[in-house]
Amino acid sequence: MPFKAIAFAAAASAAMLLSLPAAAQFAKPEDSIKYRQSALFMMGQHFGRIGAMVNGKAPYDAKAAQANADVVASLASLPWAGFGPGTDKGAPTKAKPGVWSEHAKFTEYSEKLQAEVAKLDAAAKTGNLDNLKTAFGAAANACKTCHDAYRAR
Ligand code: ASC
């Protein structure tokens, strides 16, 4: 294969990897629902470990905070592909109809969350608990705004 073709193939596969979440395909709605719930569950677990430090329920461990923030920031792009058309049922879900009927708003909230967890990741890297607290509060608020609107109790 000529160099140009190799370079093109490499760029094409890199582009595919980067666009994976948006292009993710699921065999059935149940898989989609489980996928988004799994990603959000894992984010909650790692976000909660930072929360414990921020709220004084666990000692502040800068390295652990950083590792947890890295996981949250890495996972934050994933859940949204699992909210595709027709995935409002097929497995137990608390997602409200608004996720689909107000999809632009839902997407806006998901983008806000991704921006806030990127800031959380940056704050964790500073090794300063006050920075972590501020960023954690903003990220938790982004979680809550969307949950209040689109997650049933
Ligand atoms: C968490 C978690 C959420 C958010 C939300 C923030 O730790 O699992 O869903 O924070 O409770 O208000």
List the helices and strands and how they pair.
Blueprint (H helix, E strand, L loop, with lengths): L2 H16 L1 H4 L5 H26 L7 H14 L22 H4 L1 H24 L2 H22 L3
Helix pairs in contact: 3-4, 3-7, 4-6, 6-7
The site of ascorbic acid has 8 residues, from helix 3 and helix 7.
Short description:
It contains 7 helices and no strands. By secondary structure, the chain is mostly helical.
What features would you describe in this structure?
- This protein is mainly α and 153 residues long.
- It has one domain (3-150): Four Helix Bundle (Hemerythrin (Met), subunit A) (Up-down Bundle).
- The chain has 7 helices and no strands.
- The protein has helices at residues 3-18, 20-23, 29-54, 62-75, 98-101, 103-126, 129-150.
- Helix 3 runs antiparallel to helix 4 (62-75), helix 3 runs antiparallel to helix 7 (129-150) and helix 4 runs antiparallel to helix 6 (103-126).
- The radius of gyration is 18 Å and the shape is elongated.
- The model has no long low-confidence stretch (mean pLDDT 91).
- Bound molecules: ascorbic acid.
- Ascorbic acid binds next to helix 3 and helix 7.
User: What is the residue-mean pLDDT, rounded to a whole number?
Assistant: 91
Give the % helix. over 70%
Radius of gyration, in angstroms, nearest whole number: 18 Å
Order of helices and strands: HHHHHHH
Q: Describe the main β-sheet briefly.
A: none
Which regions are unreliable across 5 or more consecutive residues at pLDDT < 50? none
Bound molecules: ascorbic acid
Query: What form results from the Cα inertia axes?
Result: elongated
The CATH architecture can be given as Up-down Bundle
Please give the CATH class.
Answer: Mainly Alpha
Q: Count every beta strand, where a strand is a DSSP E run of 2 or more residues.
A: 0
CATH fold naming = Four Helix Bundle (Hemerythrin (Met), subunit A)
Number of helices: 7
Strand residue content: under 5%
**Into how many domains do the coordinates divide?**
1
Please report the distance between the alpha carbons of the first and last residues. Answer: 56 Å
Structural class: mainly alpha
